[in-house]
Amino acid sequence: MNTFKFLLVDDEKSFIETLARRLRQRGFEVDCAFSGIEALNQLENDNTVDVVIMDVKMPDLDGIKTIKKLKGKHPLVEVIMLTGHSTIHSAVETMKIGELT
Fold this sequence. Notes:
Helix content is 47%, strand content 20%. It has 101 residues and is α/β, with parallel strands linked by helices. It has a single domain (5-100), classed as Response regulator (Rossmann fold, 3-Layer(aba) Sandwich). Strands 2-1-3-4 form a four-stranded parallel sheet. Helix 2 runs parallel beside helix 3 (63-73) and helix 3 packs parallel to helix 4 (88-100). The protein is globular, with a radius of gyration of 13 Å.
């Protein structure tokens, strides 16, 4: 059975670990990163990631900056952005990044 490989990115470790466990229980392959920089490094070393699920608010490199770098080097990777602190500006900016690739 073909399956998607996920990369989960958030600085909230407990949230990411819980989501990873749930996805693995359903047969998905999952890696975790706890910062934008860590996510970009993992993607450089692993070209099998299909979907990145990422938080917008992170301390070192936020989700918007991370998605810009990610899409520049990995345009075929799908990205799902999560946030509890959304603004219309950040939503529009993120959507524009997705349309440019």
